[in-house]
Amino acid sequence: MGLLTRVREWRGRSRVAKFDSYTRWTLYVLPVVLPGFGTVGVLADSALTRPWILTLGGIFTVQGILGISIFRRALDHYLWKKPAPWWPLGMQALLFVAAMVCMVISFGTYGNEFASTIGLFLWNGSLSVFGPWTLLVRKIRRFVYSCVGVALLLGIGVLILGAGWQAALALTGSVLGLTLWCVYVVRLSGWMLHVMWELETAREAQARLAVAEERLRFGRDLHDVLGRNLAVIALKSELACQLARRGSEKALTEMTEVQRIAQESQREVREVVRGYREADLHTELVGARGVLSAADISCRIDDTAGKTLPPPVQSVLAWVVREGTTNVLRHADARRCAVRLRVTADTKAVLIMENDGVREPDGDPGDGNGSGLAGLRERLTVLGGTLTYERGDKATFRLTAEVPLTGAGDAAEASDGVRAAAAVNGGTP
């Protein structure tokens, strides 16, 4: 996979996915970089005359490198309930204990000469142990109580090894401070990721529910229109067959009635489809503002000329608003969206939708047959209109629909006539 492909994939991610990557890699790199730099600094200043300090820095650096996988699995466990890496974390704890032993020996051998370097090692290297631990426990109180116990045990262990009370208190206080440090840095980061992914999931679920609700409504309308009529057609057709076998003249009457009911059903289906196809512009604009505001997207609408437009033009522009709003929610991480409707010299209606936060596309957004922007272009073509789109330099996307006002009604009637003829002739106009 080339570098350019990776860059495009990165730019195509949502803001939540990017924030997830930023947070993860910060937690991955922090326990490695700072101890590594400290070790290099000690090596450059004192060559090999400080072996315990070098050993301490090396342990924390190796611990940070091994902790990358543990951090990743711990975050996956916290966010997605995947298996917890308890055994690798136990190995990290053993390395941490070995590092503590080296730290005590270093203080006993070199005094406070490298106190700042050792503190840097301790605060950042401990993230590899205590950080994943904060993500694996369900209740943070248990983590705090456990860390208090560990701090006391380490302090007692230092006293047993012969260190003074000052060293024991310093170690105990450092571990307790690390507890709060890891809770603040790691657990809070995991909690923020969890909340953001929940919001993203709810947003996607809302879009799917809206589509499912519209499908159910359309299916319910069709059932209400066709259910009774189809049942009557079936009964009368069966009755006509029985009468025909008997040679009764009433069979012709029944079949005539069947034909009438079928034609009536055909007319009602066209009305349902026409009502489904014809959306209200004002309703769609109000709905777009409500949906975008709920998604924390600032929406500005200028539709002063909307009420003066012919009904067919309002209907097709309403579909543009509906599809454009759906695209903003699904395919962009927008912070603002503007909708402007104007009439140029009383001859053409122009609707412009513009938003920011556009992700890197996988292909042409106009691709596809009968869906998305391609479906909108077909609707506009019926009225002699056009649909164009363009991407700006600052991750903006502008959708422009233009519909001529002259002849819009005739074009709509002609389109309905073609659809009606196609329905009567089995789909052939």
Question: Mind explaining what this structure looks like?
Answer:
The chain has 13 helices and 5 strands. A 5-stranded mixed sheet has the order 1-2-3-5-4. The longest helix has 82 residues. The C terminus is likely disordered. With 429 residues, it is α+β, with helices and mostly antiparallel strands. It folds into 3 domains: 202 residues, no CATH class; 73 residues, Up-down Bundle (Single alpha-helices involved in coiled-coils or other helix-helix interfaces); 144 residues, Histidine kinase-like ATPase, C-terminal domain (Heat Shock Protein 90), CATH 3.30.565.10.
Quick gist of this model?
With 429 residues, this protein is α+β, with helices and mostly antiparallel strands.
Q: Mind summarizing the main beta sheet? A: 5 strands, mixed
CA distance, first residue to last residue: 49 Å
Mean pLDDT over the residues: 80
As a whole number of angstroms, the C-alpha radius of gyration is 35 Å
The helix-and-strand class reads: alpha+beta
